[in-house]
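User: I need a structural model of ABC transporter permease from Rhodanobacter humi for a docking pre-check later this week. Nothing fancy, just the predicted C-alpha cells so I can convert them on my end. Input:
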Amino acid sequence: MFAYYFQLGLRSLRRNPVLTLLMVMAIGFGVAASMITYSVFRAVSGNPIPDKSAQLFIPQIDGWGPQQNLKGEPAEAVSYIDAMALLRAHEAKRKTMLYQVLMSVMPGGDRELPIAVNGYAVGSDFFAMFEVPFRYGGRWSEQDDAARAADVVISGELNQKVFGGANSVGRTIDLGGHDYRVVGVTSHWNPRPRFYDLFSTDGFADEPDIYLPFTRAMDLKMYPSGRNSCRGQLSFTNWTDYTQSNCVWITPWVELDTPAEVASYRSFLTNYAIDQQHAGRFNWAPNVRLRDVVQWLDHEHVVPPESRISLVVALGFFLICLVNTIGLLLAKFMRRAGEIGVRRALGATRREIYAQYLIEAATVGLVGGVLGLLLTALGVSGVGMLFPPQIAQLAELDVSLVGLTLVVAIVATVLAAFYPAWRAAHVQPAWQLKSS
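Assistant: Understood. Predicted C-alpha cells for ABC transporter permease:
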C-alpha cells in the first residue's frame, strides 16, 4: 500500500504543479536557511574532546584581588609564581602548563629564508592529556622536562615544509638560533574550539606548528607571544621582574579522573591560596575555580552570539514556511473532498485516508529536501559573508548534514500535514455524494 499511496502522491503533485511548486519552495528555502546556520552553530558549539572533557580541568587562582579581578572571577590564566607552584605539586594524575610562543625556523637545505612558526611551550603530559595524534615518533619524556631538553614536536605541515614529509624523528631543526631534536610529528590536530587556549585565542586559530618543553622555554627566558594581562602600576625591564609580577600569561591544565580527585584538587587550590594569604602575597580571601572543558567553554562564551541569533532567526523563518505549507496542503487536500467522499463511500477507512495524504506530504517534503540540499550547499559556501573567516571555514556539507537536511524536510512536512490530513479524513461521504 505504501507504493500505491506514493504513486497517488506523485499523481497529485503533477495535477497541481503551481501549488506543488509553492510547497516545495517553502520547504526548500526554510530547511536550507535552518541547515546553513545550524552547520555553523554545530561547528562552534561542539565538544572538542568528548571522551575526556569531564576529566580535564583548568585551575584558576585569583592573584589580583577583589578590586582588580574580573567581576569577582579569577583571571583566565595564572602568573609565573602560581604556575610553578602548580607544576611542582603532585596533586593530579597529569598536568601541564602552556603558553604561546613565536619562533623562526632558520634557513637550511634548499631554504634561503626563515619560516615564522607559532606554537606552545608545554609539559610532556600535554600530548596524553589532550590525545594528540602522532604520525611519527611521540612526546618527549618527563626526564626531558626535568633536564630542560632541546626537544620539539612539530606539525605534519611544518614537517612537509622543512623535511619534505619524511620521517624527521631524530633530526635537528634550528628554531630561533638554537638546535632542537625532533622527537615527534603530529597528524593534523586542531580541535575547534581550541579549548586548551582560550586565553590567547578566540578558539578558532590555525593549527600550531611546534610544541617545545615548557621548562626549556623558561630556561631560555622566552617571553609569550600570546596574550599577557597585568594589574596595577608595574615596572619591569628584565625576565626576573616579569616573572615575579602579577602578570598572568600561563594556562594550567590538570587531569582528574574521579569526583574525589576533583574535590581533593579543589581543596589543594584553596589551601594554596590560604598559604599565599598567610605569606603576605594575597591580602584577600581565597578565590579559586576548577572548571572542566564544557564548563570552561560556557564560561568563556566561545559560541559567537551571531551564530545563536542567526539560528533562531532561521528557525523562525522555517516555522513561517511550515505554517504556509499547512495552508497550502489544506487547500490542496480539501479541493479533493469529492474524491475523498467517493473513496470513503467505497469502504476506505479514515486510517487509509491518513496514510494516503501523509505519504503524499512526505513526497512533497522529500522534493523540498532535495531543493533545500542544493540551497544548503550553495549557502554553506557563502557563509563567509555573515561570519568571520576563521568561523565560516568550519561550516561544511558533510554526510551527516545531508542526511539531517532530508530528514528534517520530510518529518517537518509530515507534521505540517497532520491537520490537513485530519480534515480530509473527516470529510462526510454523504454530504459529498449529495452535493455531487
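Before docking, keep this in mind: Strands lie at 56-61, 94-105, 115-122, 134-137, 151-155, 172-175, 178-186, 210-213, 251-255, 288-292.
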